[in-house]
């Protein structure tokens, strides 16, 4: 009996996702320098040649991992209800929870930041995602200023940039190695924004 087209497509999507996750975990453990396509294929139970059917180059796989990481972080900003202050609080708490539960995400994000310095394709993905995040935060802050949550003289764009910079610095203090420092920084940010 022959499998229908949707079943084949679904199986292919599952393999792609499994390969991305295997590469993601490899990068978290060994960095980009330790990423070997042969090892990734083996972890998923595929032949190395078959992997190239899904990702023709190592760079294509790396870009898929970058998209996975940026989309995973974007999930911390999927809120639509509540006041602007409640939305920002929910976002910061989701980020903090993500740091605690999935420190590998921030390790890989750190690796991506380094790679983006040398790779224009990775840099473009990171810039696009960061600009979207910045726009989202700026919109929340501007709405909060209009509603009186924050002072009228608060610079929404600069504050959004500060939130992003602080969050990205968690890569440096590494939520896995120094979780207390990341938690302290997040709590201080909440105090500054009077979210507590």
From TrEMBL:
Domain of life the protein comes from: Bacteria
DNA-binding region(s), residue ranges: 36-55
The protein's name: HTH tetR-type domain-containing protein
InterPro entries linked to this entry: BetI_C (IPR039538), Homeodomain-like_sf (IPR009057), HTH-type_TetR-like_transc_reg (IPR050109), HTH_TetR (IPR001647), Tet_transcr_reg_TetR-rel_C_sf (IPR036271)
Sorted UniProt keywords: DNA-binding, Repressor, Transcription, Transcription regulation
Stretches assigned to the HTH tetR-type domain: 13-73
Molecular-function GO term, any one: DNA-binding transcription factor activity
Keyword presence, Oxidoreductase: no
PROSITE patterns: HTH_TETR_2
Signal peptide stretch: none
């Amino acid at each position: 009996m022959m499998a229908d087209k949707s079943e084949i497509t679904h199986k292919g999507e599952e393999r792609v996702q499994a390969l991305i996750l295997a590469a993601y975990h490899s990068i978290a453990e060994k960095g980009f320098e330790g990423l070997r396509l042969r090892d990734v294929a083996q972890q998923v139970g595929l032949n190395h040649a078959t992997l190239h059917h899904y990702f023709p180059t190592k760079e294509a796989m790396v870009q898929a991992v970058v998209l996975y990481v940026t989309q995973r972080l974007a999930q911390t900003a999927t809120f639509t209800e509540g006041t602007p202050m409640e939305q920002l609080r929910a976002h910061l708490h989701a980020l903090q929870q993500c740091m605690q539960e999935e420190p590998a995400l921030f390790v890989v994000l750190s690796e991506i930041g380094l790679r983006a310095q040398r790779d224009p394709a990775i840099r473009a993905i990171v810039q696009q995602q960061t600009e979207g995040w910045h726009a989202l935060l700026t919109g929340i802050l501007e709405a909060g200023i209009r509603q009186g949550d924050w002072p009228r003289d608060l610079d929404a764009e600069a504050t959004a940039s500060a939130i992003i910079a602080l969050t990205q610095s968690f890569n440096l203090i590494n939520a896995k190695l120094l979780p207390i420092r990341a938690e302290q920084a997040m709590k201080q940010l909440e105090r500054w924004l009077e979210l507590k």
